[in-house]
Design brief:
Radius of gyration: 18 Å
Number of strands: 5
Number of helices: 8
Order of helices and strands: HEEHHHHHHEEHE
Structural class: alpha+beta
Helix content: 25-40%
Distance between the termini: 40 Å
Strand order of the largest sheet: 2-1-5-4-3
Largest sheet: 5 strands, antiparallel
Length: about 230
């Protein structure tokens, strides 16, 4: 886990760095815990190095999962956790497809990375996600353009477990001070906006409590026989 239970200060996940870098992360954890918005430090494979109390609170109602907890690996959480849509509004189109695009770009840059290869194998085990990755994703990237790969500045819906927030939006802000950049890490903060009131037509991202099945992608159609 990227932090201790019970609201204690975040404990840095081990990274390939020296004692000075570890001390920096210890102090950075104190900075992170002083931030009121959900914030997490991710390594180059989306593994959570640090996560603050607000981040833990945002995902406090998701069930256990052996490989896809948000404070372990954010990419795996978005793609594989059956409770992801309870928190991430418009999960398929606004979170899953952009993360698939980010992953595809990372795999293209470093196709020999074992962790990325493991994610790719897991995608292949889900026929609908595999169809989305191989056939739907390229079309989607072509339609939305470079914005498909942009994370910093994106505004995306959330459903916060705290009723004072409820269904709202967040702006994703990413930043990498030189010390974090040298460790291959990036800080991701979800800047919450004022909650939406008097919404009709249900919550964005699905009804809370309705978990998705293993094959959860529906916004990207399966390929036609000619595309297979």
């Amino acid at each position: 886990m990227a932090y201790r239970a019970g609201g204690e200060r975040s404990v840095p996940r081990p990274v390939p760095a020296g004692s000075e870098a570890h001390a920096y992360l210890q102090d950075y954890a104190a900075l992170l815990d002083a931030v009121s918005f959900p914030s997490v430090v991710l390594d180059g494979r989306w593994g959570a190095v640090l996560a603050n109390t607000a981040f833990r609170t945002l995902f406090r109602e998701v069930g256990p999962h052996p490989t896809a907890m948000p404070d372990d690996n954010f990419l795996r959480f978005v793609l594989f956790h059956p409770d992801a849509s309870l928190v991430l509004g418009d999960h398929e189109s606004r979170w899953c497809l952009p993360m698939l695009a980010q992953f595809a770009a990372a795999l293209e840059r470093d196709g020999d990375d074992r962790e990325l290869q493991a994610v790719r194998r897991e995608i292949a085990q889900d026929p609908i996600m595999e169809a989305a990755y191989r056939h739907g994703l390229p079309r989607w990237i072509h339609e939305v353009g470079p914005a498909a790969l942009a994370l910093d500045g994106a505004v995306r819906p959330l459903v916060h477990p705290d009723p004072r927030w409820g269904a709202t939006d967040c702006r994703i802000v990413t930043e990498a001070p030189k010390a974090l950049e040298d460790m291959g890490c990036t800080r991701l903060t979800l800047v919450l906006r004022e909650p939406r009131r008097h919404q009709h037509g249900g919550r964005r991202g699905g009804v809370r409590g309705a978990r998705r099945g293993a094959s959860h992608l529906t916004v990207v159609p399966s390929p036609s026989p000619s595309e297979g």
